């Protein structure tokens, strides 16, 4: 239920200052109010970001979570959003400032609450949280809705609906994107097959980046839906394999060629077992699948009351 950023709501604006200091230092007692729906993938992005930044685990509670029933939106929320009623939305309680749109929210949270003394948190670099590596992760996140997310939605059925029949051309395009992500992961991570417990993130490091939390909520749903409705396993490609390296290539180059996007597979397993992912996972997957099968829609929660505990 993501939407464009909400501007000029009762004199409050969602634009951010270009020279802001981290709000955790500037306003140590300020609360964030997070308006969400636990089944919405866009809101899921923000939930992961808040958790990875430790804002959900601070003593005293930095974040107040307000669950919004999108099928029966409360009047206060409609009034607050000029009738739009979209999630995710955060409110900085000290100023009343509202920020919407999941990717914008996550960038803002990073800019204001990132802590230099936790150099691995949400960084996109294996060695530091340099401005350039952060910009790389931000660029990837900002592009993913038009690439990975769009292609995945087409693969499950088009739009937000499900189809039980495979569209092989659509799946081929989706697999090409998965191979691109696989190459990105390989570039930023050491290729150590002996360490099966090593975590793998899109831009390296030992914690999730803005890029990881941008695509994982959709990858999680695509994996479940494609397996349930089409018998297709995300990350196990069937329709597109990149060309093999030329026979004249060096042995080291040839050895890196693989028939499956194993780096993407490792990334998916890493994100599935992240504590932040486990904390907001659907509690009854069978019930979710029954609701998906009955409604044939990923966004069925927009039309009937449901949440991650009772999907």
Provide a descriptive summary of the structure in words.
39% of the residues are buried. A 4-stranded mixed beta sheet has the order 2-1-3-4, covered by helices on one side. A hairpin with a 4-residue loop joins strand 3 and strand 4. Mean pLDDT is 85; it is low at 4-24, 116-121, 123-129 and 248-255. The longest helix has 26 residues, at 131-156. It has helices at residues 23-26, 41-52, 75-80, 102-113, 131-156, 168-188, 210-230, 251-255, 262-272, 275-279, 285-295; strands at 32-36, 63-67, 89-92, 97-100. Helix 2 runs parallel beside helix 4 (102-113) and helix 2 (41-52) crosses helix 7. It has 311 residues and is mainly alpha-helical.
List unreliable stretches of 5+ residues: 4-24, 116-121, 123-129, 248-255
Mean pLDDT over the residues: 85
Our estimate of the beta-strand percent is 5-15%
> Oligomerization state of this entry?
single chain
User: How are helices and strands ordered from N to C?
Assistant: HEHEHEEHHHHHHHH
Taking all Cα atoms into account, the compactness measure Rg is: 20 Å
Question: In angstroms, what separates the terminal alpha carbons?
Answer: 17 Å
Q: Which structural class is indicated by helix and strand composition?
A: mainly alpha
The proportion of residues forming helix, as a percent range, comes to 40-55%
Number of helices: 11
Describe the largest sheet. Answer: 4 strands, mixed
Based on CA inertia axes, which overall geometry fits? globular
Strand order of the largest sheet: 2-1-3-4
* Number of strand elements: 4
């Amino acid at each position: 239920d993501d939407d464009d950023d909400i501007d000029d709501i009762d004199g409050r604006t969602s634009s951010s200052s270009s020279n802001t200091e981290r709000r955790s230092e500037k306003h140590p007692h300020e609360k964030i109010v997070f308006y969400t729906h636990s089944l919405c993938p866009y809101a899921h992005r923000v939930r992961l970001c808040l958790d990875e930044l430790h804002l959900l685990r601070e003593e005293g509670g930095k974040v107040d979570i307000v669950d919004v029933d999108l099928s029966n939106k409360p009047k206060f929320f409609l009034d607050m959003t000029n009738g739009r009623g979209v999630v995710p939305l955060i409110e900085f309680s000290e100023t009343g400032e509202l920020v919407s749109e999941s990717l914008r929210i996550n960038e803002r949270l990073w800019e204001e609450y990132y802590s230099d003394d936790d150099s691995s948190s949400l960084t996109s670099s294996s060695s530091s949280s340099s401005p350039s590596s952060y910009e790389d992760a931000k660029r990837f996140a900002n592009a993913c809705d038009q690439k990975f997310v769009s292609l995945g939605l087409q693969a499950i059925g088009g739009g937000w609906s499900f189809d039980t029949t495979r569209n092989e051309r659509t799946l081929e395009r989706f697999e090409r994107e998965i191979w691109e992500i696989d190459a990105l992961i390989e570039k930023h991570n050491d290729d150590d097959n002996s360490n099966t417990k090593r975590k793998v993130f899109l831009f390296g490091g030992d914690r999730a980046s803005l890029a990881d939390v941008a695509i994982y909520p959709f990858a999680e749903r695509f994996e479940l839906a494609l397996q349930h409705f089409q018998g297709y396993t995300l990350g196990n490609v069937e329709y597109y394999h990149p060309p093999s390296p030329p026979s004249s290539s060096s042995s080291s180059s040839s050895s890196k060629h693989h028939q499956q996007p194993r780096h993407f597979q490792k990334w998916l397993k890493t994100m599935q077992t992240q504590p932040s992912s486990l904390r907001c996972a659907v509690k009854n997957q069978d019930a979710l699948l029954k609701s998906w099968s009955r409604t044939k829609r990923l966004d069925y929660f927009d039309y009937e009351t449901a949440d991650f505990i009772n999907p």
